[in-house]
Design a protein that fits this description.
Layout lengths: L2 E9 L2 E6 L3 E7 L12 E7 L2 E7 H4 L11 E8 L2 E7 L1 E9 L12 H6 E7 L2 E6 L1 H4 L10
Parallel strand pairs: 2-10, 5-7
Antiparallel strand pairs: 1-2, 1-8, 3-6, 4-5, 6-7, 9-10
Length: 147
């Protein structure tokens, strides 16, 4: 039985996961610098041990109200094309080991930009886990979606 590991988190009431191999680290941060003229989903910049990290507010990516960047915010730092980018999430979950045979394609009800960001789903205990494509989540040309 082949399994994959996913770092799980919540955005609003939606349950998401990204492959463990894409995640550099998970951290709390509260010091951000605004990015003038950036698309609305780009929440700001912060310094992580000398590296400037851009943030993508997944709430905005999914057509929800933006999060205020005040106080500690959960950052899931992922690597995209060799660069670190932070996905801002509401709550962090656990690392889930999921059986490949339980993987299903995205539901037909997901359309537009959301469908490009969600590669598939797993039915977990009481919740549907939507697997995100981190490249698409940080793609600046992708329009705002709605979940």
């Amino acid at each position: 039985m082949l399994t994959q590991q996913f770092v799980t988190f919540d955005v609003e009431n939606h349950f998401f996961g990204v492959p463990v191999g894409a995640v550099q680290e998970v951290l709390l941060n509260e010091h951000y610098t605004a990015m003038p003229l950036a698309p609305p989903a780009y929440g700001g910049l912060f310094n992580l041990r000398g590296e400037v990290i851009g943030t993508v507010d997944l709430r905005v990516r999914f057509g929800l109200a933006p999060r205020p960047i005040t106080g500690p915010v959960i950052n899931v730092v992922v690597r995209v094309a060799g660069e670190a980018v932070s996905l801002l999430v509401d709550r962090i979950g656990l690392v889930a080991d999921l059986d490949d045979s339980a993987f299903e394609p995205p539901p037909e009800t997901l359309t537009g930009p959301t469908r490009r960001m969600v590669t598939g789903t797993y039915k977990t205990e009481g919740r549907l886990l939507m697997v995100l494509d981190v490249d698409e989540c940080v793609n600046p040309t992708l329009a705002v979606a709605a979940v």
